[in-house]
Design a protein that fits this description.
Helices cover about 60% and strands about 0% of the residues. With about 160 residues, it is mainly alpha-helical.
Length: about 160
């Protein structure tokens, strides 16, 4: 699942911040990061936990001390990752979400986004609809606006 996470996370950030200077490229990477990383380990693991996402936030904060512009850009990574947990329904598996507080085993938990079956198709279509809205709302058919988004991650307008 890609469109569901990128679409819903982008919409959430736009509705909350209304900040056209937010880097939506980094946000999209953050929105996909938990599934990319945890798929390498065979299921919902560290990046589907609160601890893993707080750790990611800590790394961004520590590595950007004294560099506010870099911090502003990179904060989109943990924001996207935290929102991934919301839109993945990660809270439904408390043994993973609150690891290691609830135990040290992940109990071979599958990735929620792969474990949904046919519902994933519906969620992807919703994500596609949201991204079409973004395309229209920010007039991304205009090559200059698209170039700005690709080059800077910013939305014009």
């Amino acid at each position: 699942m890609v469109l569901w996470f990128v679409g819903m996370v982008s919409l959430s950030v736009w509705l909350v911040f209304h900040d056209p200077r937010f880097d939506y490229r980094v946000l999209a990477i953050g929105a996909l990061l938990p599934d990319i990383v945890d798929a390498l380990f065979g299921g919902a693991r560290l990046m589907h936990t609160v601890l893993g996402n707080v750790g990611l936030l800590l790394v961004v904060m520590v590595t950007t001390i004294g560099r506010p512009a870099k911090r502003r850009t990179l904060l989109a990574l943990p924001i996207g990752s935290f929102l991934h947990l919301v839109f993945d329904g990660a809270f439904a598996n408390t043994s993973v979400l609150w690891w290691p507080i609830t135990g040290t085993s992940f109990d071979d938990a599958p990735l929620p986004s792969i474990d949904r079956g046919a519902i994933s198709v519906v969620l992807e279509l919703i994500g596609l609809a949201v991204l079409v809205w973004f395309w229209r709302r920010f007039q991304l058919a205009d090559p200059e606006r698209r170039r700005i988004l690709v080059r800077t991650g910013h939305l014009v307008g």
